[in-house]
Amino acid sequence: MLIIVNLHFHSNQFHICIFSSTALFARIRESDIELTEKGHQQAIAAGEKLRSIIGKETMYIYMSPYLRSKQTWENIKKVFVPSQIITEREDPRIRELELGNRDNLQNFSKELEEQKRTQCFFYRFSGGESGADVYDRASLFLDTLFHEIDNGDHDRTQNIVIISHRFFISLFLMRYFRWHVQDLKNFKKLDNCEICELRKVDGVYILNENTILSSQASSNKT
Predict the structure, then answer these.
(1) In the chain, which ranges are continuous DSSP H helix?
(2) 78 domain residue, yes or no
(3) Torsion sign across C-alpha atoms 36, 65, 156, 77
(4) Could you please report the per-residue DSSP string of 157-193?
(5) If the chain, 222 residues long, is cut into consecutive pieces of 10 residues, what is the mean pLDDT of each piece?
(6) In a domain, 212, yes or no
(7) Domain total for the chain?
(8) How far is CA 30 from CA 66, 90, 160, 179, in A?
(9) What is the CATH number of the domain that holds 171?
(10) Which terminus, N or C, of the chain has the lesser number of Cβ atoms within 10 Å?
């Protein structure tokens, strides 16, 4: 799955794009799952959409080390000229939720059912992670990102693009907006490669109307 986060400081906008992939479970390591042909086409379309947003501006790239994330970026970058790409960097902290050992699909299926019966944020898969673990990773990544911005490692007028995964993006948004755990169940499921905008209003970034919490459960904060 893919997330593109574009912190568009110059125009006071912040853009997010989600891309999902098929889980092949025990047949192949999740980090090695490739994009389908449809996935490649969706990534190219996401690139066109991203170009319509940032135009000729430049960008810093962060991506998950998972193969499908890197393939997604390779498709997106086709619509940009090399001079628009300042840096390209992999960051393991923005990888997807780790589901642990899936060699025994029967046991894994039981864990999935158990997760559904419990509050999924706190459920930890055997040998894997819980939502709380991913939240910690999102917090560390966000702290590093803004530390680099404060230190001048990023030009505040340029764009930051992050390519990651659906579950990570939900926890990234939860951390950024300081949502409560119960708010996650109200978060609208995003379509593949859907572009969302965080628009700055009175000094506060807000999600656009297509990606708001369905219950309007929490107020957005800086």
Answers:
(1) 37-54, 67-76, 105-117, 131-150, 166-177
(2) yes
(3) negative
(4) TSEEEEE--HHHHHHHHHHHHT--GGGGGGBPPPPTT
(5) 37 44 55 86 90 90 91 93 95 89 70 74 84 94 89 80 86 88 78 70 66 43 40
(6) no
(7) 1
(8) 8, 17, 26, 28
(9) 3.40.50.1240
(10) C
